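Quick one:
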Amino acid sequence: MDSLQWVDQTYIQKHKSEDPNTLRAMYYPNLRMYTTHGDTSKHRAPMEAALAFVMRFGRRAAVSLAVYLLSYLPVVGRFVLPAASFYTVINAAGPIPATVIFGSGILLPKRYLVVFLQSYFSSRSLMRELLEPYFSRIRFTKAQKRAWFHDREGILFGFAVGFWIFLKIPLLGVLIYGIAEASTAFLITKITDPPPGPAYSSDFAESQVRWTNKHEFLKLPLANLDAHNVHTEQHLENPMQASELPGKKFS
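Output:
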């Protein structure tokens, strides 16, 4: 949350010479009012949560082991890892990169595909960890959360894989993680709408499942990433001191 506050303050400083009525709404003032505990009546017992954790990661481990063992089958085994890579990448990057990876996987040694799949799933786990402060406050259902990640899968993978590589560097990795947290706060302001106050949040999670300006945002130059912020509805002398207000949305 401190990183998100810093992002908001930096945004205000960057655009201080512009009309305040044309700036986006702030994220930190409203988001900090959300509880991280949610509806306590819906919380799972510790044993149930632990079992769900074991089942989730156990299933992933079982699938990974099965794919790896199938890759040793005669004749068809050489196509197993390329096919798994194709299936993994097609939703995140599209059919053309996935096809390139599939073709390369047939020609390259098996260890390169193993490294690629490891980096993909590790970076995805890292991204989920970095986004936990956001999801602990904005409550999505399982289906909504799955759709949220699916709609942003490409940019989340590209964002996380770079940090995952640097995190593997001894000593430097600890510093990189702090940078990753701050960068995630900035990313949140680009792939979601500013949250409303808790009193107005009943339908907010559902409205965030689809990234409505995805194609427009991805075409923007790096120097103009704020271009799709729309006008706020009223002037705030100090936006960081905003009280509970309905969030303003991206175009």
